[in-house]
Each structure stands twice: as structure tokens, then as C-alpha cells.
Amino acid sequence: MKREVKLLKERSVDSLILAVEHFNRPWNRGRIEAVLILMDHAFELLLKASILQRGGKIRHKGDKNTIGFDASVRRGLTDGKVKFLTEEQALTLQTINGLRDAAQHYLIDLSEGQLYIHAQSGVTLYTDIYQEVFGENVANELPDRVLPISTHAPADITTLFNSEIEDIKKLLEPGKRKRIEARTKIRALAIFENTVSGDKSQPSKTELDKLCNRIRDGESLEKLFPGVVSLNYSTEGEGANICLRLTKKDGIPIHVVPEGDQNGYPVAIKRVDELGYYSLGIQKIAQSLGVSHVKLLAVVGHLKLQDDPDYFKLIKIGKSKHKRYSAKATKVLSDFLNNNDLDQFWEEQKKKNNNR
Q1: Which residues are within 8 A (CB) of 145 and not within 5 positions of it... i.e. 6 or more apart?
Q2: Which residue range(s) make up the domain with 169?
Q3: Final residue of a domain: which of 221, 243, 269?
Q4: Does the global pTM surpass 0.90?
Q5: What local confidence, expressed as pLDDT, does residue 247 receive?
Q6: Among 25-29, 46-50, 209-213, which range has the highest average pLDDT?
Q7: Between the CA of residue 197 and those of 71, 74, 178, 194, 275, what are the distances in Å?
Q8: Above 80 in pLDDT, residue 285?
Q9: Looking only at Cα atoms, what is the longest distance across the chain?
Q10: pLDDT digits (tens, 9 = 90+) for 90-134
């Protein structure tokens, strides 16, 4: 084994041990941030050690610096010579990295259940990669009982998220004045959704406020976080031998995002029913109805179809955004055209715009 690989492995294991140590500490000061930052560091070094062990490179030609976290994940996932990751493993890595980014650069609040699933699935994934690449059991490098321990381990993602949403609703009750706390709490859920959808960007204040409003209005979990509800965690063993792995539900595809997308993670999960439900672009609808797509967009705006998830969704894969409509939207637009003169409507809209 090359000395560089050996040193990367050793430092990586050090960070893993420290991450678990901070998780198991009896006080909370800085605990969430320490666990996420150290876990992320452990994985970046392990990924680079694994790439080198498989004969790959961790520097671009002529570059003094090593590649970053995303590039390391991509090489471990798609480079035929060094491949050692599955798409589901990449999703786990992306989630930890996205949460670490928020913890290091701004504010984030994870419940005990959330922190546990990310820490435990992280330790399991670390063990799997270590065994796959080096043929070694990482337990041999760890002190006894190095394992995240929690008295609030969640049953599944859906139960966890529903519990989180109920807590956020309480913060948003009239008179509480806990909007900032609600945003901080929902940030972790939004980042989880973004990362599994391949979106590397951190949620903005406006996006978080919209999510808060939708939660307050009682919108369903499936509409709020469609990517997350497409996933689950499989559990094996018990006690000191417990393993927790992120898995996708049957029939859910994972797409590899094209390289060069600066705002996208290497992989993105999309629900089959989501892509099938929002199957139409505005030009295709306009063509089927025999009208101008520009005029039809004016009707869409007038009817506020883009505000209703039954009719419209902005689907993001990496930094690419696709405005998609459902068959229900086509029906609503067809009914409008049957009952209204489109040209007259268009002229009225132009007059309104000119008078503003």
C-alpha cells in the first residue's frame, strides 16, 4: 500500500472516531456541527484513499490541489477503473455533505432522530467502502463500542419526517414568533430533499418560508418532500452490530447527473410517478390544443396553474430546471379555451399590462 493511501486512511479513521465520539457525548454544545463536519472529512479522505488504491488519480493534470468531495464521489461512482460506489451509497454521501455545508457556513438544527440516521448510516457506509476497497474490517482499527448510540432511533423516514413537521407546525402557531427557529429546523429537511434530488444549492430564506407556509397549511408529506419519501433505511443486526443503509423503494430510478454541472450532485433520484404525472411541457400542450404557447402561458398565469401542485411542478435535476404540467392542467386549459375567446383574452391581457 502506498504511503499516501496509508496516511489518508489513518486520518480518515481518526475523523470517523471523533465524529462518533461527539455523537455520543452527553452534552449538545456544538455536537451537531462537530458530527457532520468530522463525518464529512472522514469520507472525503476515505474516498481519495480508495481512488488511489484502485489506481485512479485525485489531482487534475497540472493542478497542485486535490479534487473535491463531489469529484471524488463521481470517480468512485462512474470511473470504470476505480468504481466502488453504488448510486444509493452516493446519495448517502451527498446528504452528509449537504448537511455539513449548512452546518459549517450557516445555521442548521437536526433532531436527535435525524442526526442518528445520518451518523449510523454514515458509519455503516464507511464500513462497507472500507471492506470493498481494502478488503479489511474497519472495526479492527476502532476502539471497542465505537458506534452512534441513541435512545430516540426513528422507525423509518416517513415517521421521522412526520414528527419533524408536527414540531415545525407548533413553532408556526399564531403568537409564537418562532419563524426563525422554524426555518432553521426545516432547513435540514429541505437540504435532505435537495441532495437526493441532485440539487447542491442551499435553500434560500424565500424557499424556506414557502415550505413553512405549506406545512402550516397542512400540505402532505408526499408533496412537500417527494424525493425523501421515495427512500427508506434498511436495518440489519442489533446492538453493536447494527447496520443502517439508505435504500430506494422499488421502481424508483436514480439518475447520474452529467459532469460539469456546478450546482448539481453526481446523482439524483426521481419518482417514476412524478415524472409520469408531470409529463407535459407547455409547447406540447399548446400543440395539442392548436394554439400559441405564448398565449397559452398567459392563460396559465391567469388561472394560476403554476401555484397548484395538481397541475404544475418545477422538476430539478442538478441545475437543470424543467417546467412540467399534468394531464389535469391540459383539461383545465381546454375547458377555458372552449368557454373563452383566446384572441380577445390576449388583447385584454396586453391592455392590462400596458396600464400597469
Answers
A1: 240
A2: 3-269
A3: 269
A4: no
A5: 77
A6: 46-50
A7: 17, 16, 28, 5, 13
A8: yes
A9: 77
A10: 989 999 999 999 999 988 889 888 999 999 899 999 999 999 999
CA nearest to 235, candidates 135, 144, 116, 129: 116
- The stretches of the chain forming alpha helices (DSSP H) are 3-23, 31-53, 69-78, 87-105, 112-134, 157-171, 179-196, 205-216, 221-224, 272-277, 282-289, 293-303, 327-339, 342-355
Interatomic CA distance for residues 231 and 269, integer angstroms? 9
Mean pLDDT of the chain: 85
- Tell me the per-residue pLDDT of 303-328, one tens digit each, with 9 for 90 and over: 989 887 778 888 776 667 789 998 88
Q: 239 and 308: one domain? A: no
Structurally, how many domains does the chain consist of? 2
Cα–Cα dist 90/76, whole Å: 9
Closest CA to 74 of 266, 339, 342: 266
Is the same domain home to 251 and 321? Answer: no
Domain end (from 249, 269, 289): 269
Identify the residue whose cell numbers are 435553500. Answer: 203
Residues 94, 252: Cα–Cα separation, whole Å: 18
